[in-house]
Amino acid sequence: MSSRTARLWLFLAILALDQLTKAGVLAYLSEPTGPIRLGPLLNLVHVRNYGIGFGFLSDGGSGQQWALAGFALTVAVVLMVMQARADARLYATGLMLIASGAVGNAICRLARGSVVDFIDVHVSDYHWPAFNVADIAITVGALCVIAHALPLQQAVARLRSPPRGR
To answer: 7, 9, 89, 107: most buried by Cβ count inside 10 Å?
Structure first.
């Protein structure tokens, strides 16, 4: 299987996992719900995010939801084209992860008018804003793109490549 095919399968797997987990939250956690404790630092919650990251732009209404979803889908198409043309696997995989997260949240936004978030990480009473599988994919993808851009990554690639003729 080529790396492009593997990245397409990764895209589809992340998208499916994201949609299945959101559907599970909608089916089994009525809104509003108190947190379900999964561990000392992790809760399962049901939060509707009408904006973008950290609730920014959350007061826009349905027109804004369509505009945000359209923007996310446009960005996802651009990223998918970029990853198809990329030579570096880490960079291409990062782009595909970002695209899958953007599409996952756009689908949710278009189908429900908001994004369903359900993972609550906290320390004591200090909570990180709730997030979902698509948000994880976007974050990991961004870290892959950043790691690719770091000079250390380029140095490692030079060490791995065979020496050029003298």
So the answer is: 7
Distance CA 128, CA 100 (A): 22
- Answer for the pair 36, 130: CB distance below 8 angstroms, yes or no: no
Q: What's the mean pLDDT in 51-59?
A: 53
Cα–Cα nearest to 99, from 34, 6, 8: 8
Span 154-166, pLDDT tens digits: 677 777 777 766 5
Tell me whether residue 117 is one of the annotated catalytic residues: yes
Residue 37 burial (C-beta neighbours within 10 Å; 0-12, 13-18, 19+): exposed
Q: Is 86 helix (H, G, I), strand (E, B) or coil?
A: coil
**For the chain, domain boundaries:** 3-160
Quote the tokens at residue 157: 């690639």
Choice among 18, 59, 117, 125 that is catalytic: 117
**Residue 66: C-alpha distances to residues 4, 22, 42, 71, 108 (Å):** 30, 19, 32, 8, 11
The answer to whether the pTM exceeds 0.90 is: no
Structure tokens at 68: 């945000």
Residue 126 tokens, joined: 């200090």
